[in-house]
Amino acid sequence: MGDHFLVNLYECDTSKLNDEKFLVEMIEQAIIKGKMTLLNLVTHKFEPQGITVIALLSESHISIHTWPEKSCCAVDVYTCGTEARPQLACEYIIGALDSKNPKTTHIVRV
Predict the structure, then answer these.
(1) Is 71 labeled as catalytic in the residue annotation?
(2) What is the pLDDT of residues 25-75, one digit of tens each?
(3) Is 60 a catalytic residue?
(4) Which of 4, 61, 63, 80 is catalytic?
(5) Neighbouring residues of 25: CB distance < 8 A, sequence distance ≥ 6
(6) Of the listed 12, 60, 73, 99, which one is catalytic?
(7) pLDDT at position 53, please?
């Protein structure tokens, strides 16, 4: 059925985790780097902090939930098919958020 990457990022740049515009642009770039097709993108900014971004893809989805107060976030990248490169998208996101302690789990869904 596809590749599912669960990425927990710790010790991230806190200002980036609470910047909605940055996170949207980061997800859009991850989609390009991962050779995916964006269908729709939704965001929600929580008060006093934290953001959720969900990208609906032709291949499935990418989501990110941030906790700036803890300098961490949870990223979910799931793709179906053989053309997408979800690992490249994950690597881009890890670098873009300057995570000093990333933890990635890869699940092959069959």
Answers:
(1) no
(2) 999 999 999 999 999 999 999 999 999 999 999 999 999 999 999 999 999
(3) yes
(4) 80
(5) none
(6) 60
(7) 98
Question: Which residues have a Cβ under 8 Å from the Cβ of 37 and sit 6 or more positions away?
Answer: 31, 57, 58, 59
Q: 15: burial class by Cβ within 10 Å (0-12, 13-18, 19+)?
A: exposed
**CB neighbour burial string for 27-61, b if at least 16 within 10 angstroms, e if fewer:** beebbeebebeeeeeeeeeeeeebbbbbbebebbe
Residue 23 is predicted with a pLDDT of: 98
72 is catalytic: no
Catalytic residue among 4, 61, 63, 65: 65
Angle (nearest 5°) at CA 55 between 73 and 104? 40
